[in-house]
Amino acid sequence: MAILRKLAIALLVIAVILGLGFWYLSQGDTADLSVEEVAGTEPTLEEANPETFPTVQIAKPVGWNDGEVPQAAAGLSVNRFAEGLDHPRVLYSLPNGDVLVTLTRAPSDQNDDGGVFDAIYGWIANYLLTEAGATGESANQIVLLRDSDGDGVAETQKVIREEGLDSPSGMSWNDGKLYVANHNAVLAFDYELGSDAVTGEAEKLMDLPPGGGHWMRNMELHPDGELLYVAVGSVSNIGESGMAAEEGRATIWEYNLATGDGRQYGVGLRNPNGLDFSPWSGELWTTVNERDMLGSDLVPDYLTNVPVGAHYGWPWIYYKENFDRRVDEPMPRFLQEYVRNPVYAVGPHVAALGLVFTKEGHRMGDEFSSGAFVARHGSWNRKPPSGYDVIYVAFDERGNPVGKPVPLLTGFLNDDGTTKGRPTWVEWGGDGSLLVSDDTAGIIWRAASPDAEPGAGIERISGKRLPPQRELRDPRAVFEEDYLRTQAGQEIN
User: Fold this and answer.
1) Tally of CB atoms within 10 A around 126
2) How far apart are CA 282 and CA 317, in angstroms?
3) Which of 15-24, 36-45, 339-348 is the least confident region?
4) pTM recorded for the entire structure
5) What share of the chain is helix, strand, coil (3-state, %, to 5)?
6) Is 336 in contact with 60 (CB distance < 8 Å)?
7) How far is CA 220 from CA 57, 141, 153, 309, 338, in A?
């Protein structure tokens, strides 16, 4: 009897120790810095604090009460443009004012290309995503939203395509063709503006790396209508499944509609999402979700331009000069010499998704007339939580972001740690309002300044080309001489 008693006591002690250990590990890392300090053009980057177990703080969705709306910035009002949707994510506004939205979730047969570690990681991720309201069967639908009477509410809400869709995300339209990015391919459909259905067979334009940890595939059509850009996120956090599993991922792809050729346009982007072209320069910009498990203050997600051939360092480097010592895969030679620094940090673990720049005809008022609008979906691994809002990033007259993010729509996150919803995508409505998808709440929000006249567009920056050199000279010296002459108002011959 004494032996059994001792055994029971020993088991109890072990259980207590394990319980205390689990409790300690589950506490995670509490942020030392505010989100604002880890945002902007010069974010504060603390020393990395690698975690064996991730910091976890899930905001469970509880929905919005009848009549509730997000809190809008001064001068703006917000209303429900559409509701009752099954996990709406990407919004796309057609030239005739109709709005399309993809109802979508992760594919059921995600291929993580990994082993036992990835299986365990996937199980944990699935549990966390379930708690956050992100799991379930994908509806695989494109829904048409139409506000015919102009009252700011879409009285038409109609499924126009299901067949052939598999976790669809990004959309683009041009010249009678609707382009849709499934998780594993880019498709083209015949579609005339104003139609209430997308009929006919899908044409597959290009394959994409399927599923994976980051399965969304956003898309943006170049203004000239000839090139498509498709964002593909990584499978893993830092390449722990091996870089062979990341082939074609952590990349923005460019597809030429005329020739059918595709190429990797920008790489080293862990999880690129929102895409838009700068109205100042015409250059492609994106939002990117950076790596996890370096603490609550690292690494900030970012908003950046993407020149052709750009590399932003993932998984080996973040923010140009910070090496991630956890990465086992050999780093390419001279990577630090050519890796680019992100332009603008939007905060740690905020999950920056949708992106649009100021557009001609906007109804956001003078305070929000020259910049970018970003949906921050919200953290699952920061204490305290970050994101769960829509922000505005002001740009100067040269097309460069300045200052700190300005809250535009807030009130998604409750004081008790639950959330009413999670802003996912942003898009311009046909009337100049800003539309925001809220995936866990199934709502499309509409924000605008009721008294604002349609705003002007951003004037494209143009300048003279540098003259050709007629002799071999130091390029830096020539540039400085030309710059000084220009500043003095002299003509460059």
Assistant:
1) 14
2) 27
3) 15-24
4) 0.89
5) 15, 30, 55
6) no
7) 33, 19, 26, 18, 26
